[in-house]
Predict the structure of ChrR family anti-sigma-E factor.
Amino acid sequence: MIPNDEAAPNGSRLDELLAGYAAGTLSPHLHSLVAAHLYLKPESRSFVRAMEQIGAQALEDMPACAVADRDRKLAAIFESAERVEPRPAAPVCSVMPPPLCAVAGKRVSDIPWRFKLPGVREFRLPDQAGTEATLYWIKPGKTIPSHTHEGSEVTLVLRGGFSDTTGHYMRGDIAIADPEIDHHPRADEGEDCICFAVTDAPLRLTGPLARFVRRIVGH
């Protein structure tokens, strides 16, 4: 999926996500997701560069203002920069781009995957800024139960692919879901699907499984 293609799944919403990345307004998990997307999809980089240029021009057009106690503040900035400890190098992984390897702190082969559903494993990262981030490993042909969302869900495909009501997504593609979308993603046949998903609210089950759960709990 290429930005600015309104006919593509998530066309305008992907533009908004990339613009947020350029403006530096995304949550840390979403920032890492988009950085990984840009690593895998060079065609999106020109859109981000254009947004960054627009932002830079807007700053240039703003009237300059004096900074109180300028010298002391600059000295404090330089002093803090000298104390920054270098980060350890991120693991090298053929599945996860460097921005995600740095966040996960390990290669896919080293991740302690946990059972989620038959054919589905997950690895939760620590929550940040009100968002949850999860890596999913889905066996070929497996389907996630029908659900919608109380907020947004942004998913980056790292290996294989999946389809849902909004389209077909492969390595490097971003799928965006919200409360208006009710879907049951299905992994492609022939290859495991590994995804990185960021959500800002819980999902809500729909369909037969939701009705079964409601009968069990009496709601």
In short: The helical segments are 11-23, 28-40, 45-61, 70-82, 98-104, 207-217. Residues 212-219 have pLDDT under 50 and may be disordered.
